[in-house]
Design brief:
The protein is of the alpha/beta class. The chain is built from 16 helices and 20 strands. Strands 1, 2, 3, 4, 5, 6, 17 and 18 form an 8-stranded mixed beta sheet that branches. The structure holds 3-acetylpyridine adenine dinucleotide. 3-acetylpyridine adenine dinucleotide binds next to helix 6.
Length: 538
C-alpha cells in the first residue's frame, strides 16, 4: 500500500463531493444520491439557497417571473408550491429553497458553514482531495463545482477604504438582521441591478442618499403584482407546455419574442411595440424586435425609447441626462425595477457622476469624489461580483501535473461546454463559463447541466470507467466557438461583468455562451450520444 493510499484511508471518502448549496448544488445532490452514490455537499453559508441566501439587500427579488424561476424536475413540487408575486422577493425564494431541502431531505448530506479551500486531484488514485472547514480533508471520485456565477463579491480597493468609521455593506453579503438606515446619510456605489432594486427602498429609509454612478444603466419597470390564483392555476395546468416552449427560446424563457426587424418596421409599429413591452415590463422588453441585439441602428431605437421614458419621469433635465445610458441596451444585463428613476425626484437623493472622474477616496467620514467630500454614516457597495470565474479560482483547484485552475485561466476561462476542463479530470462545473448560464433563465440551465452530469457519471459507472477529462483540442475549439458567436452580438461590445470589465486586471473575454439554450442543449446531447465526444474516458 502506497503512503498516499494509506493517507487517503484516513479521510472521509465519497463517490462525489459538491461545492455550494444553491439551486445547482441542491439538485445535483438529489440526483446523485438518487443514483445510489455517496455524496457530501459543502456550503460556506449557514443554509441553502446560494445567491438567495447571501443577497438579502432591500428590494432583492428575481428578475425572472416566479412561475418560471423554479425547478421543473418534480411535477409534484411545481404543482404544490404557491408563489405570491409575479417576481418573487428574496425571502420567498429562500423559503422555496428551504422547502426543497426539506421535501427531498437534502440537509443530512450538507455540511454548512464549511468553506472549501482546496481541491487537488490525486493522480495516483484518480480522486479529488479537498481541504474544507477547519482543516478537514475529504476525498471523492467526482467533484462538482456548483459555486454560482455571481457569488464572489467584488469590492474595489478604493483608496482609504479601510479608514471609514461608519457602517459598510455589500449588497451580495447583506447582514441577516438587515440594516437600519433611518435618519442616516447613506452613500451607495454602483448602479447595477442590485443598486437599482435597492435604491428606491433605501431612499425611503434614509435622511439622505448619495448615489455614485460610474455607468448609467437601462432598466425596465417590473410592474410587479400579487399573483392571481386563476393565473397560477392556468400556468400549472399547462406547466409541461410552458416548460417545453421555454426550452425552444434562446433565454430558456416562455415569452413572446417578436422576430420582426425594428428597422424594417414603421415608426408607428415600433412605438406601439416598445410601449406594449414597457407596459408589460421586465426583460421581455428586449424581445420587442429580432434585431435589437444584432444591429446597432435597431438597438439605438430601443435605447432612445428608454431615454425618452427617463426624460418623462425625471423632473430635473440635468439629472435625467446623467441617468441616460449611451451604451447598447441589453449589452449589460437589463435591469428590472420598481420606481427607480422616480426616486431621483426625491429631495433626499443626490446623483453623483463618477464616470469621467473616479471616486477619489473613502475617508473616515465619507466618500470623496469630484473634489468634494460627501459625509455619510453608511456606505453600500453595490459593486457586483467577480462573475463566473471568481468563486472557482479563489479555491485552490489543482489538476493533473499540479496545474492550478487560476494559472490555466490566467488569460481567461477555458472550458469544454462550460462543464469540463482539460487537465482537471472528474471535475464538473455547473453553469460554468462557456455555457449559456447567466444569459438564460438560470433554473432550467442548472437542471440541464445537473442532468447531463448525472447521466455522464451514470454512464461511466455502467461502463466500468472512473475517469473523464475534456480533451484539450475539444476545449480549444469550444472556446473559439464561444468567442466567435459572441462577436456576432452587440452584447460583447460594452464594459460589463460578462467580459470581466468590472474587476480590475481581469482578462476581457466574453464568458457566457451566447448561442442560446436550444443550440447549446443540442450540442451537449450530441456529445453524450457520441459516447462523450471530446472527452477522454478511462
Ligand atoms: O453588479 P453589477 P450587481 N467605482 O456588476 C459599479 C444579477 N442580479 O450586483 O457599470 C464606481 O451589475 C459598476 O459600474 P460600471 C444580475 O445578473 C440579478 O448590480 O462597471 N462604480 C456598476 O454600476 C446582475 O447583472 C438580480 O461602470 C463601480 C455596479 O458597481 C448581476 O447580478 C438582482 C466601481 C456593479 O453592477 C450583478 O448585479 C441583482 C468603481 N470602482 C443582481 N466598481 C435579479 O433580479 C464597480 N462599480 C435576479
Amino acid at each position: 500500500m502506497s503512503d498516499q493510499q494509506s493517507e487517503l484511508e484516513q479521510v472521509a471518502m465519497f463517490d462525489a463531493v459538491i461545492v455550494g448549496a444553491g439551486f445547482a448544488g441542491m439538485y445535483m445532490l438529489h440526483r446523485l444520491r438518487g443514483m445510489g452514490l455517496s455524496v457530501r455537499l459543502f456550503e460556506a453559508g449557514g443554509g441553502v439557497g446560494g445567491t438567495w441566501y447571501w443577497n438579502r439587500y432591500p428590494g432583492a427579488r428575481c428578475d425572472v417571473e416566479s412561475m418560471q424561476y423554479s425547478y421543473q424536475f418534480s411535477d409534484e413540487l411545481q404543482q404544490e408550491w404557491v408563489w405570491s408575486e409575479r417576481y418573487a422577493p428574496q425571502p420567498e425564494i429562500l423559503r422555496y429553497a428551504n422547502h426543497v431541502a426539506a421535501r427531498f431531505d437534502l440537509r443530512r448530506d450538507i455540511q454548512f458553514d464549511t468553506r472549501v479551500y482546496s481541491a487537488i486531484f490525486d493522480e495516483a488514485n484518480d480522486r479529488w482531495v479537498l481541504e474544507v472547514g477547519d482543516g478537514e480533508r475529504v476525498t471523492a471520485t467526482y467533484c462538482v463545482m456548483a459555486t454560482g456565477c455571481l457569488s464572489s463579491a467584488n469590492t474595489p480597493r478604493f483608496a482609504g477604504v479601510d479608514s471609514f468609521q461608519g457602517e459598510t455593506y455589500h449588497t451580495g453579503h447583506w447582514p441577516h438582521e438587515g440594516a437600519d438606515f433611518s435618519g442616516k446619510r447613506v452613500g451607495i456605489i454602483g448602479t447595477g441591478s442590485s443598486a437599482i432594486q435597492s435604491i428606491p427602498i433605501i431612499a425611503r429609509q434614509t435622511a439622505h442618499l448619495y448615489v455614485f454612478q460610474r455607468t448609467p444603466n437601462y432598466t425596465i419597470p417590473a410592474h410587479n403584482v400579487p399573483l392571481d390564483p386563476a393565473y397560477q392555476a392556468a400556468v400549472k395546468a399547462d406547466y409541461a407546455g410552458i416548460r417545453a416552449r421555454a426550452k425552444q427560446t434562446l433565454p430558456g424563457l416562455d415569452f413572446k419574442f417578436n422576430t420582426e426587424s425594428a428597422l424594417a418596421s414603421s415608426e408607428e409599429e415600433r412605438q406601439r411595440e416598445f410601449e406594449a413591452r414597457w407596459a408589460y415590463g421586465g426583460i421581455p422588453f428586449m424581445g420587442a424586435f429580432g434585431d435589437l441585439l444584432y444591429d446597432q441602428a435597431a438597438n439605438d431605437l430601443a435605447a432612445e425609447f428608454v431615454r425618452g421614458k427617463i426624460r418623462e419621469i425625471v423632473h430635473d433635465p440635468e439629472v435625467a441626462e446623467m441617468l441616460s445610458p449611451r451604451n447598447v441596451i441589453g449589452c449589460k444585463r437589463l435591469c428590472v425595477d420598481t420606481g427607480y428613476w422616480a426616486t431621483y425626484n426625491r429631495p433626499n437623493v443626490t446623483l453623483i457622476d463618477v464616470s469621467d472622474k473616479p471616486i477619489e477616496a473613502i475617508t473616515p467620514a465619507g466618500i470623496r469624489a469630484r473634489g468634494r467630500e460627501y459625509a455619510v454614516d453608511a456606505i453600500v457597495f453595490a459593486t457586483g461580483f467577480d462573475a463566473m470565474t471568481g468563486a472557482l479560482v479563489r479555491i485552490d483547484i489543482r489538476g493533473t501535473g499540479g496545474q492550478t485552475l487560476k494559472e490555466k485561466w490566467r488569460e481567461g476561462p477555458k472550458t469544454y461546454l462550460g462543464l469540463g476542463i482539460a487537465g482537471f479530470p472528474n471535475l464538473f462545473t455547473i453553469t460554468g463559463p462557456g455555457s449559456p448560464s447567466v444569459l438564460t433563465n438560470m433554473l432550467p440551465s442548472i437542471e440541464q447541466h445537473v442532468e447531463w452530469v448525472a447521466d455522464c457519471i451514470g454512464y461511466l459507472r455502467e461502463s466500468g470507467l472512473s475517469r473523464i477529462e475534456a480533451r484539450a483540442e475539444a476545449e480549444e475549439s469550444w472556446v473559439a466557438h464561444v468567442r466567435e458567436v459572441a462577436g456576432g452580438s452587440l452584447r460583447s461590445t460594452c464594459s460589463s461583468w460578462y467580459i470581466g470589465a468590472n474587476v480590475p486586471g481581469k482578462p476581457r473575454i466574453f464568458m457566457p455562451y451566447i448561442g442560446g439554450f436550444p443550440a447549446y442543449v443540442q450540442k451537449c446531447n450530441a456529445v453524450a450520444a457520441k459516447g462523450y465526444e471530446g472527452f477522454a474516458l478511462a
